[in-house]
Amino acid sequence: MDPEEQTDMQSIKLASLEEKQHKKVRYYEATTIKLVIAYIFFQAVIFLSVFHQNPAIISCQHWWIPFSLSSLITFIFSISFTRFASKLEHIQHQHDITVMERDSNHHRKNAPTKRSNQYS
Length: 120
Description:
By secondary structure, the protein is mostly helical. The protein has one domain (10-54, 62-105). Helices cover 80% and strands 0% of the residues. It contains two helices and no strands. Helix 1 (3-51) runs antiparallel to helix 2 (64-110). The chain is rod-shaped and about 80 Å long. The two termini are 32 Å apart.
């Protein structure tokens, strides 16, 4: 195989890898956004349930119930968010490296070849 064919094969492999990584990046981005939306929704539900209750039912003595529920939801979502955000960062970094390698191969392939006698 000549070097040009190797470069073409490598470019094809990198393009395929880039497409797979791009799909993973979009998946993790969408999942992370969904987690944030769900977190905001659950916190809003807790907030609204506290303020729409009869003041006699939820008094200052029971402040710890919505606080504990909110803290538990925050803890659970923070673990999930951190996990997906770190995976997103890792996949995005790998995707960026793949794009740079593909572009580098493309520029090497299209670069003009050196002539032995430029000024002859």
